[in-house]
Write a sequence for this structure.
C-alpha cells in the first residue's frame, strides 16, 4: 500500500519548518502564495535549507533543475511540488 500525501498535511509541516528555522513575526498571517524571498523570510542560503528539509522530511530528491521559485518560493509552491513528486511516485 502506498500512501498519498494530503496537501493540508504538507502545508502544516512546511509552516512548522519555516516557523522554527526562520524569523517570521506571525506565521498564521503568512499567506500560502506569499513569496518567501520577496518577504525577506529566506535568502539563497535559506533555499538550500528548504531543499534539505524537503529531502529529509518527505524522502524525495530535489534535482538541481527543480530549484526554481515556482517550486520553492512559497508554501503553495512547495506543497504543489512535494505532493506532485510524492503522488507521481505513488502511481508507479
Amino acid at each position: 500500500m502506498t500512501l498519498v500525501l494530503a496537501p493540508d498535511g504538507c502545508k502544516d509541516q512546511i509552516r512548522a519548518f519555516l516557523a522554527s528555522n526562520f524569523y517570521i513575526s506571525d506565521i498564521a498571517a503568512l499567506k500560502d502564495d506569499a513569496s518567501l524571498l520577496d518577504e525577506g523570510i529566506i535568502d539563497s542560503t535559506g533555499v538550500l535549507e528548504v531543499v534539505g528539509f524537503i529531502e529529509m522530511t518527505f524522502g524525495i530528491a530535489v534535482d538541481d533543475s527543480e530549484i526554481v521559485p515556482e517550486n520553492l518560493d512559497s508554501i503553495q509552491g512547495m506543497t504543489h511540488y512535494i505532493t506532485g513528486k510524492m503522488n507521481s511516485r505513488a502511481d508507479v
Observations:
- The first helix runs from residue 7 to 21.
